[in-house]
Amino acid sequence: MSRARADEEEYWHSSKFRAFTFDDEDDELSQLKESKRAVNSLRDIVDDDDDDLERVSWSGEPVGSISWSIKETASSSTSSLEGRDSGLQKGSSSYAAFPKQVSSYSLSSLFKGELCLSLSALSDTGVKNYAPELRRPKAEYKDYSSDWSPKDTVRRMQRGKVCSLERFRSLQDKLVLLDEAVAGHDGNVITAVLIFLKRTLRREILFRELEVRQVALCHLIHFLKEAGEQKLLLDLLRFLDRTEEVALSQYREHLNIQDVEKRREFLKGCIGLPFSAEDTSHIQDHYTLLERQIIIEANDRHLETAGQSEVFRKYPRKASILNMPLVTTLFYSCFYHYTEAEGTFSSPTNLKKTFKIPDKQYVLTALAARAKLRAWDDVDALFTTKNWLGYTKKKAPIGFHRVVEILQRNNAPVQVLQEYVRLVEDVETRLNLATKYKCHDVVIETYKDLKDRIQLTAYKCKVERGSAEEEKINSILNNMQIRWKN
């Protein structure tokens, strides 16, 4: 009996396993529980005060990030395996030789719920790795769950914080929220609240409440125009009895119509909308212009394809005339159809008469078109008028100084420029233009008329020696019949 007991004692002292004991003082699991209680008590204190603070590990990475969690899991597993292998190799029967797993229980691991991983490291079965729970910071949940007042909500939205507006369920709360947004004078916040109200209120209620809130109403109208919500915009304008704005909004829809024939029919229907008298005439002109452009485009495409017109052969068209402005259409007609009779749709004079184009606009456009073609005879005829006695006179409603500038931009020869520089009435302007564009004859004649010998002598140095201009200056200076002022 005593021998059997001695063998049993020897077995327990020599084995690597320990017998069961009720003593919890050295029990690893008990230490783990005590550590967890202490850490939980610390976490309550830390969570209350530092919800918005970011925790950073010794490596400099934010606690709770994915990279931190992977490193934490790997380090815990490695330390557990190494400790266990060293314990098995030693084969010591003493409790002190058992590998300690304290390093695997850091504060961060307890915060992230790695208790399962540590317990599995203590067991004899294979080690299992569990991914830690990744949770959002409590401060982020506050943005959704906290019971913010309308004023606080608007204030947080102004600071760029995430706020849920779904908690404002009653009509009164929603209107208070809108009033606070308007009082904050922040257009982005006002628009965000209006989008929320548009989604959660019936149209009749929304329109009725916005009618007495003009600032919010203007923001909503602008938002609907920018967002292209045409149907809701028209309903709102009809509710407000803004008939002209309704008509203009419907008229703007023609911009989205690409087919020319459909656009023409749409514009024809817009003529009967409740526009003002002035706007009605503009809509009528727009429809008439598009109708003309369709006719001109079809005819010119045929002429260009057949090669029957010299101007189309020398200057091929670069773009279609369809949907172009009135001034562009007039320039096109002056370029390709300048000599046509007034009875044709493509005649420039017909366009001028039909659309009541002012003389200044017509002369500017025709001058630019004919100068580009270097048709100087047409340019001359454009400014030549006859009186009732049959005398001809040049007259320009835009001023001859502008005529000179347009001709110079189109590389007109000096002879043509000089002819129109002479017609500039203001002497100083005439001299400046003549000097700038090297119209020497005009400068010499002007100084002669002014009887300014000094300026004429000074200008002699600016012309080439032996040129006709120098001989002309010498002839004038030697003329004894001229009474010079200086």
Automatic annotation (TrEMBL):
Q: Where in the cell is it found?
A: Cytoplasmic vesicle; Early endosome; Late endosome
User: Per its UniProt record, what PANTHER family does this chain match?
Assistant: DEFECTIVE SPERMATOGENESIS PROTEIN 39, SPERMATOGENESIS-DEFECTIVE PROTEIN 39 HOMOLOG
Question: Where does the protein principally reside?
Answer: cytoplasm
Keywords for this protein: Cytoplasmic vesicle, Endosome
- Example of a GO cellular component annotation carried by this entry: early endosome
Organism from which the protein derives: Otus sunia (Oriental scops-owl)
Kindly list any coiled-coil regions of this protein.
Answer: none
| Annotated GO biological process | intracellular protein transport; vacuolar transport
What Gene3D superfamilies has UniProt attached to this entry?
Vps16, C-terminal region
Q: What is the lineage of its organism?
A: Eukaryota, Metazoa, Chordata, Craniata, Vertebrata
Record-given protein name? Spermatogenesis-defective protein 39 homolog
